[in-house]
Amino acid sequence: MDTTQELVNKPKISEKEDFLPIEGWDHIEFYCGNAKQSAFYYQYALGFQLIAYSGLETGNKEKASYVLQQGKIRIVLSTPLRPEGFMSEHIKKHGDGVRDIALTVKNAASAYEETLKRGARGFMEPTEFKDEKGTVIIAAIHTYGDTLHSFIERNNYNGTFLPGYID
Hints:
It contains 4 helices and 8 strands, in the order αβαβββαβαβββ. The protein is an alpha+beta fold. An 8-stranded mixed sheet has the order 2-3-4-1-5-8-7-6.
C-alpha cells in the first residue's frame, strides 16, 4: 500500500488521462421541512443572496426551491409541496439535509458513462432541460445513502441557475 508521502508525490493526471474532468462545484441541494424559513436564515444570518426560485409560480408542482449564493458557493433549499412522496419521506427519515452534490462538467453524458463503467449506479440518464436562456444537460448517480452526485453541463446556458427557475 502507498504511504501518504508516495501518494502526495505521484505525478499529476494529465487532462487526456482524466476520465472525469470536473470544472467545479455547481451547487448543493438540501431537502428542508421549510425551505422559505431556511432561505431567510441563510440570507440574514449567513449573508447569502437569493438569486433564483422555482415553485408553483413557475409551474413546479412538486417542490419550492430557493437558490442562494455567496461568492462561489451556491446552495438550493427545497421543500415538498405535498405531504406524500419521496421528498417528504426523505425529510421524515433524515431531517433537513443534503440530497444532491452537483458538479459542473463539460460533458454530462461522458461523466455519467465513465462513472457507470467504474461501478457507479445510475440515477438519471443525461437529460436536456431548456428554456429561453438555453440548454442544460443533467445526469446523476447514486453515491451513499440517499445522496446523489449530479453532473451539470452548462455549456449552452446563459441563465442565472437552471431552466424552470426565475431570477
